Amino acid sequence: MDLFEHAEPASNAPEFTVSEIAGAVKKAIEGEFGHVRIRGEVGRVTRPRSGHLYLDLKDDRAVLSGIIWKGRADALAQLPEEGMEVIATGRLTTFPGQSKYQIIIDDIAPAGAGALMAMLEKRKAKLQGEGLFDTAHKQPLPFLPEIIGVVTSPTGAVIRDILHRLRDRFPRKVLVWPVAVQGANCAKEVAAAIRGFNMMTPGGALPRPDLLIVARGGGSLEDLWGFNEEIVARATFESRIPLISAVGHETDTTLIDFVSDRRAPTPTAAAEMAVPVRMDLFAALDNQGARISRAVTQGLGLRQQRVRDLARALPQPEALLQGPAQRLDYLGERLPAALRSAAAAKRVKLANAALRPGVLQRGVAEQRRRLDALAARLDPALVRRVGDAGQRLSGLRLSPPDLSRPRERLEARVQRLIDRATRAQDARRARLLALDRLRETLGYRETLRRGYAVVRADGAVATQTADVQGASVVEIEFADGRVQV
After folding, report:
1. Number of neighbouring beta carbons within 10 Å of residue 406
2. How far apart are the C-alpha atoms of 474 and 455, rounded to whole Å?
3. Where would I find the H helices in 214-356?
4. Cα-based distances in Å from 341 to 195, 286, 344, 463
5. Rg of the chain, C-alpha, whole Å
């Protein structure tokens, strides 16, 4: 240890806490950059359950964290996506918990049409990879729909053009679902309208349409952006009703055009795709009727000619009957002689087989001898049959049955029934006595024996003082009797 201690050099620099330094930096940054516009590429984008939107803005040399609070995020017309070039407007601040600075974004928009197109191509590739554009999933349009559902703005010229074209071609029932066709609510309302039409019941009070038309007039890429949202594309893909997209002009293309079952260049063209021309159908029907009439007439003529040709190849009826008629005449001439010859032959045969008395007597004698032989054999056969039956009967021994064991079983069963009935009667008697004791215990007279009383006013039980004050006769019941007051 040194004999003399060396004094430490004194310092005039003030000491700050971590919080004081963080607060000073926060004030400096917010005072200097209270309102800024920053251009950059969107990096990581997250949105937790709170609804706030967290993202990164970056360029080739730096990264800046950003926050969009829930209220601002819900009001944005276009939510930022990773890889999108944007211009963010807000204020810089710090987050002392992580010693970093960040921007609180009030508004964010794509940095020109190039950024929107890049994001559109990215989203298009994603949906195409999931199979939403496959032609195998596209449904055929009905030939003549009964009800057509139109998703569009109810105040624009689009709905008037569609209704006018349907009225000219083939009038149909039209259900209009009003939606916003541009702005922040466009995508949500269009998707909800498509799903709402699909949830209707076929044949109900408000029947489900057979065909849907999603229509909007022309506009810029930003105006049509609601129809490029993923929620609209998925609602279109999930639709069980065939859908025609008619968004923008012929040169405008949105994602709903790739997912829909048919794309129309204009809303008017969509109405033309939906229904045929009624007069064309009438003309086609008349043409088909005329063709049917001509085909029937021509078919009958051909068959008549065929019958005439076949008739000429057939022989004449007189020629067919000449041979049989000649044979009939020949046989008719031979018939009398054949009848006379047959009668003579039968007569000779009858004369040879005439019945003589001697023949009959010989037959009767023969039958009598057979009967006598059978009668002589009958008596010995009966004697033998009776003897055999007697022997079998004598071999059988018949004795009276023993009824002692059935009687014992019967008496045992009767005794069991008597015992069971006695036990059941005793159980019911015990239960009845228990219920009676319970009734006595729960009755109000037992309560009266414990010092309580029942007050009756004019014969009715009084539960309040007002019942007693207005009564002419008051009666009090005790355990041993009643007293009138």
Report:
1. 10
2. 7
3. 230-238, 255-259, 267-274, 278-313, 317-352
4. 105, 81, 5, 135
5. 58
Name the pTM for this structure.
Answer: 0.47
β-sheet bridge partners, residue 477 = 454, 482
Amino acid symbol at 334: R
Express each pLDDT in 136-164 by its tens digit. Answer: 989 999 999 999 999 999 888 899 999 99
| Pair type for strands 211-216 and 262-263 | unpaired
Considering only residues 338 and 470, tell me which one the structure prediction assigns the higher pLDDT: 338
Question: CA 49, CA 81: separation in Å to the nearest integer?
Answer: 18
Q: Is 41 helix (H, G, I), strand (E, B) or coil?
A: strand
Mean pLDDT for 333-344 is: 87
Q: How far apart are CA 481 and CA 189, in angstroms?
A: 83
From residue 448, how far is each of 38, 381, 444, 451, 479 by CA, in Å? 92, 106, 6, 5, 5
- If you ran DSSP here, which 8-state letter would residue 60 be given? S
Among the listed residues 182, 152, 348, 307, the one whose alpha carbon sits nearest the alpha carbon of residue 243: 152
Instruction: Tell me which DSSP letter residue 228 carries.
Output: G
135 near 70, Cβ under 8 Å? no
- Neighbour count for residue 95 (Cβ, 10 Å): 13
